[in-house]
Amino acid sequence: MNSNTALKLGDLILPNNILYAPLAGFTDLAFRRIAKQFKPGLMFCEMVKIEALIRGIDNTLDMLEYDEDMHPIGAQICGSNPKLSKECAKIIEDKGFDIIDFNCGCPVNKVIKDGSGSAMLKTPELIGEILSEIISGVKIPVSVKVRIGWDFNSINILDIVQIAEKAGAAAITIHGRTRSQGYSGPSNWEYIKESKKIAKKIKVIGNGGLFEPLDIEKMFKETNCDGVMVARGALQKPWIAKEWESYCLNKQEGFFIDKKALFLEHLHYTQMICHERQVLLEMKKIAASYLKNLKDIKHLRIAIMNSSSTEDVFSAVNNFNWA
Ligand SMILES: Cc1cc2nc3c(=O)[nH]c(=O)nc-3n(C[C@H](O)[C@H](O)[C@H](O)COP(=O)(O)O)c2cc1C
């Protein structure tokens, strides 16, 4: 089993093979400041559009902010125009990122309407062309994140693995669902296993349905993948990389985490980057993620929903029974 080992992607050596996924609307600077202390092998900023980055749209540049102690750190780009991809990749490299990932999995309509995201699965040759463009423009490693196919009638993951390998990608992250599955239903890990069998040099990262250390263990065992990418599981447990490390050492489940302290820290980081109204919205989102299993959490959620200032959130947190 390939668990909890360093992972080499091109010249980049990740300290471990538990990667945290890019999650639009979630893996912002505040989340990454929280997550980095649990030492995932690699973290990503939120996905940015190639065109938006080239045009230098402010909000896009903000999304690529990171702290020096977040290395190794990746940027993920999304688009379908090969002519712009090289220039975009160069901007990312110049910003000091360690790896560039090309998104071919995003299912949302406003992304796929111009052939980007998961719509790329319908044009696998274009995936190869864009990867070649990106790779020719930078020295850092390049990876691609895909789904197994558009729908169950058009599963083409094995072709895509070969195309990405031929283009020179260092890794391919495979979300084991089709585009038509969205984010529900089983993640079909058997395709990750088959992909690993045919991969020669390209590293295969398994993704989809990883929420607990036991899931990670199962993914490694069943697919023989080189690494895993945790997505919603990292929102529910930003500490999952550390929990996995401890699970590997003693095979015990359960991991103590001071959720109150973590939430207050998250509030502090969110205040640093957002206006007050946005802070309230963000804290509501977070209360629904890694606090959601706390006893009586609905009381805290309601108190946060009724908050009209950050001070109200602080007092709601302090009045909540965290025991
Ligand atoms: C809210 C949300 C935002 C996401 N944003 C991105 C993204 O920006 N880039 C990406 O490659 N995948 C994105 N994904 C997909 C995840 O990275 C991952 O592939 C998917 O959730 C499957 O893993 P899971 O079942 O373990 O959550 C997103 C998923 C969710 C739920």
Shape: globular
Let me know the number of strands: 11
Report the CATH topology name of the largest domain: TIM Barrel
> Roughly how many Å apart are the termini?
38 Å
- Please name the fourth-level CATH homologous superfamily of the largest domain: Aldolase class I
- Low-pLDDT stretches are none
Quick recap of the structure?
Helices cover 45% and strands 14% of the residues. It has 323 residues and is an alpha/beta fold. It folds into two domains: 7-250, Aldolase class I (TIM Barrel, Alpha-Beta Barrel), CATH 3.20.20.70; 259-319, no CATH class.
Describe this structure in words.
- The chain has 323 residues and is of the alpha/beta class.
- It folds into two domains: 7-250, Alpha-Beta Barrel (TIM Barrel), CATH 3.20.20; 259-319, no CATH class.
- The protein is built from 15 helices and eleven strands.
- It has helices at 29-36, 50-55, 58-63, 82-94, 109-112, 124-137, 157-167, 189-198, 213-223, 232-236, 240-250, 259-273, 276-287, 297-305, 310-319, and strands at 7-9, 12-14, 18-20, 43-44, 48-49, 73-78, 99-104, 142-147, 171-175, 203-207, 227-230.
- The strands form two sheets. Strands 3, 4, 5, 6, 7, 8, 9, 10 and 11 form a nine-stranded parallel beta sheet that branches. Strands 1-2 form a two-stranded antiparallel sheet.
- Helix 9 (213-223) links the parallel strand 10 (203-207) and strand 11.
- Helix 1 (29-36) runs antiparallel to helix 12 (259-273), helix 7 crosses helix 8 (189-198) and helix 13 runs antiparallel to helix 14.
- The longest helix has 15 residues, at 259-273.
- The radius of gyration is 19 Å and the shape is globular.
- The chain starts with 6 loop residues before the first strand and ends with a helix.
- The mean pLDDT is 95.
- Bound molecules: flavin mononucleotide.
- Flavin mononucleotide (FMN) binds next to helix 10.
